[in-house]
């Protein structure tokens, strides 16, 4: 549901009206076509935060690139595990299932840097990027480049404090996504919205509302305070006056 922030870079063209440079979007389509993402399962990989498991969030950040999920291996065994996968794509991206804050744009930037510098191996704040040709021909990973891309997104979830921090960040991202799409959130910090909930423009959500599961709120609805809505379709123009629980209905 949550889309990546389009990464932008300045073009050389200057606007004749505005004093600033025109900013043009850069395409990273090739990243998804030429990269295989290998996600290593870590403890807590199935932990659900904001309607998705930790591993689901990492998979989502990989976008449309081909993905393989395998059990975590020791670092000294990683090279041997990767060799069979080196026949499939030009680049191998190795991530861990306990980094749910990753975003598509960060992964795209990392791979773009890797490709532009013609690197063979690169260590991320938590993860790796390899050239498949390098993996096929080497017996040891020697002196990989270390590079930091949005290190806060590589936060490893391994404690109750980490879980709380990640929950707050993902909840805020979800709320920002809906606000950008024309949804009005009043007292937004008291509003909880699962990742897969769909809300159309013009909806007004008052404080103390919880929306979970595959809920769909159509345009111009008003949710008064105190609703708990799960797996429910709320039709266009409906006003809900603080129902305690609405589950699996069409309203």
Named at the architecture level, the CATH assignment of the largest domain is Alpha-Beta Complex
Whole-number mean pLDDT: 88
The structural domain count equals 2
The CATH topology of the largest domain corresponds to: Spore Coat Polysaccharide Biosynthesis Protein SpsA, Chain A
**Total strands:** 21
Write down the overall geometry.
elongated
Low-confidence stretches: 1-21
Helix/strand order, N-terminal first: EEHEEEHEHEHEEHEHEEEEEEEEEEE
Helicity level, as a percent range?
10-25%
Give the count of helical stretches: 6
* Computed Rg: 21 Å
Strand order of the largest sheet: 6-3-7-9-8-10
Tell me what the structure shows.
With 251 residues, the protein is α/β, with parallel strands linked by helices. The chain has two domains: 23-154, Spore Coat Polysaccharide Biosynthesis Protein SpsA, Chain A, CATH 3.90.550.10; 181-247, UDP N-Acetylglucosamine Acyltransferase, domain 1, CATH 2.160.10. It has helices spanning 29-34, 54-61, 78-82, 104-116, 132-137, 160-180, and strands at residues 8-14, 21-25, 35-41, 48-49, 52-53, 66-71, 91-96, 121-124, 127-131, 145-146, 184-185, 192-193, 198-199, 204-205, 210-212, 216-217, 222-223, 228-230, 233-234, 239-240, 246-247. A six-stranded mixed beta sheet has the order 6-3-7-9-8-10. Strands 11-14-17-20 form a four-stranded parallel beta sheet, covered by helices on one side. Strands 12-15-18-21 form a four-stranded parallel beta sheet. Strand 4 (48-49) and strand 5 form a beta hairpin. The longest helix has 21 residues, at 160-180. The radius of gyration is 21 Å and the shape is elongated. The relative contact order is 0.11.
